[in-house]
UniProtKB/TrEMBL annotation:
Record protein name field: Small ribosomal subunit biogenesis GTPase RsgA
Annotated cofactor note: Binds 1 zinc ion per subunit.
Source species: Virgibacillus tibetensis
Binding site residues for Zn(2+): 247, 252, 254, 260
Limits of the EngC GTPase domain: 72-221
Principal subcellular localisation of the protein: cytoplasm
Subcellular location: Cytoplasm
Superkingdom to which the source organism belongs: Bacteria
Upper taxonomic lineage: Bacteria, Bacillati, Bacillota, Bacilli, Bacillales
């Protein structure tokens, strides 16, 4: 029995990397019966029948998994936002951050197209950069000439398993193409009528980039909080998570409760007002969600 990691899934076959060798495997029939699907990123035990084909016998416990793309055991998500076309949106960025934090994945923020904005927009985004860095996030401001900036980004990929996320048209595919020119992913042109790019996704594969692995398909296309419970939301904002221990009431939700340390921190400017506003908006959205049965 050998052990490895699934790095590609295609047409019912799973390609498992063990050491420097990649084995083509099928899943055991018992997985289908139990409704278990092996995912790209899974650590597995497999039996090799002949040099070319094996069977996956066991899937090891996952630290996390995504639905889109279907992938497991990520430890980093790079959220690509753009300064322009589409315009930067802190609300949208916070949506991505919450979804990624909820999956126990480390977020990193790249803001692209900084070379095509006015000086006032540049200043505004630099302010956001400082505030997100104070919260504890890594934030890189990038120009639209991505390949030239890759050397300063290499360290983000080394020893990490990364998915790239962000709304359409911000430069996710361009970033993937710059990281690995052999990918030649079709860059989605922004469709002006819709103000968003066209989907250009394929099967999922983990590719080697700078000593780490990167999913070759952008992730997080659905941005609803369908799996997030109200009690989890505060934990997805690091600065709220830090302050809530000082609230008077143990189950404080930081909305209407008295002696709430989070609201005090907002009043004192220790938590950015827009972050708290987004927390309240998302809280209301989860509250109004139709119950699941």
């Amino acid at each position: 029995m050998a052990e490895g990691r699934i790095i590609k899934a295609l047409s019912g076959f799973y390609y498992v990397k063990s050491g420097e060798t990649i084995y083509q495997c099928r899943g055991r029939g018992v997985f289908r019966k139990k409704n278990i699907t092996p995912l790209v990123g899974d650590f597995v035990s497999f039996d090799i029948n002949d040099p070319n084909e094996g069977y996956i016998m066991e899937i090891k416990p996952r630290s996390n998994e995504l639905v889109r793309p279907p992938i497991a055991n990520l430890n980093q998500a790079i959220i690509v936002s753009s300064a322009k076309d589409p315009d930067f949106s802190a609300t949208l960025l916070d949506r991505f951050l919450v979804l990624i934090e909820a999956k126990n994945i480390k977020p990193v923020i790249f803001i692209t197209k900084m070379d095509i904005v006015s000086s006032s927009v540049k200043q505004e985004i630099e302010t956001y950069q400082k505030e997100y860095q104070q919260i504890g996030y890594d934030v890189e401001l990038l120009s639209s000439k991505l390949p030239a900036q890759l050397p300063k980004l290499d360290h983000y990929f080394t020893d990490n398993v990364t998915v790239i996320a962000g709304q359409s048209g911000v430069g996710k595919t361009s970033l993937l193409n710059a990281l690995d020119p052999t990918l030649l992913l079709k860059t989605a042109e922004i469709s002006k009528s819709l103000g968003r790019g066209k989907h250009t996704t394929r099967h999922v594969e983990l590719i080697d980039v700078q000593g780490g692995l990167v999913a070759d398909t952008p992730g997080f296309s659905a941005l609803e909080f369908s799996e997030l419970e109200l009690e989890q939301l505060a934990g997805c904002f690091p600065e709220i998570r830090e302050q809530k221990q000082y609230c008077k009431f143990r189950g404080c939700m930081h909305v209407k409760e008295p002696k709430c340390a989070v609201k005090q921190a907002v009043d004192q400017g220790a938590i950015p007002a827009y972050r708290y506003k987004h927390y309240l908006n998302f809280y209301e959205e989860i509250q109004l969600r139709k119950p699941r049965y």
